[in-house]
Amino acid sequence: MLDRTYVREHPEEVRTALANKGVDLDLDRLLAVDEEWRELKARGDDLRHERNQVSQQIGELKRDGRDEEAEDAIERSNDLKTELEEVEQRAGVLEAELEEGLLRLPQIPADEVPVGADESENVERRREGFDDLRELPGEIVPHYDIGEDLELIDFERGAKVAGGGFQFLKGDGARLEHALIQFFLDVHRESGYVDVFPPIPVNSASMQGTGQFPKFTEDAYRIGADNDEPYGDDDLWLLPTAEVPVTNLHRDEIFVDEDLPLKYAAYSPNFRREAGEHGTETRGYVRVHQFNKVELVNFVRPEESDDRFEGLLDEAEEVLRRLELPYRILEMCTGDLGFTQAKKYDIEVWAPGDDMEEGPAEGGRWLEVSSVSNFEDFQARRAGIQYRPERHESAEYVHTLNGSGVAVPRVMVAIMEYYQNEDGTITVPKALRPYMGGQEVIEGHDSVGESALGEGGDD
Known about the structure:
The chain is of the alpha+beta class.
């Protein structure tokens, strides 16, 4: 959330941010509401002051036996009370509208963020791992085919049990997923992260605190009600990312200076409807409704957030370096910057199985596995997270940052495609072998039931 004083005093900067982020909001209306609200607050203060003076006069007049003047003063006091109630009622309506409007104002992009209309104007900063590629098969089988051939992923039965966008991981597929999660956590623990295992349901106040609400209610899984029904602070939702519970772990709290910087790493399953997403670009294990992820959340002093932002990027990259997967770093332009972010990098891993537009010269496609974001004080202001530079000083808002460290499904996709062999097996990356009992190659499993024999199984 932006500070209302900042919005009032820097309307053109806010207007530019709205345009650059593609947010449609009537800023002039919001500023007019703020102005009328401030006028009413001032009028209310004047009315309370005058009423207090009149109340004093009533007592003095009665003591002096000036009953007629006292009655006039009582009538004036009642008039002031009625007017004050009207002013406070109107101010309350405006305050609610103002708060709602402020919740819909996006974060101001950092000055150095490239201006652009959409993802086509993001800036590629660098590529890593392409100078020493492993030898790949002549034809790379897409992950959704080799995953089913080796009985690693079962999309059909996942859809039968939970609907489209859900899947079963089986055998070495499940084992590989578990290995990646534990590997990610171990790597980040080396960088000073404290492990957190958060609750899966989160309340509406937590979703609002990190900026998911009110903008993204349509993508969330609500517990016990439809998404379009009104919701209160205590209504529950399945978490879309561990960023939500971990950031809100310190909602409405004040750190002392020595607490910071604070770094949490959290594994969680995540749930997103991903409404409207379909097609070849999202086929298979690329964009699903339930997925595992390790999230990195940082709380820092404002003067440290720029350096910590670059450090967080490096920490997220480390898992890909150890897995020896090629990837690239994109800096988001203003038009592709999220609602809450002042600055963001995307890490995109190379998956060579499907040739897509905008892929590298080597073929294949890019898959986003992490967004590393600096929110500055935007989330902290919404969630009431502060710190005291000195114990005797006023509290200030911290800066929050986060990044996936990293999302598991697309790393799985990249491994299944990049580590394929000519004989149809998949090599286990060296960094993961200790987590898979020393296993070096995934050879697959036999099918179960009639599918193992062919439909009918009568031949």
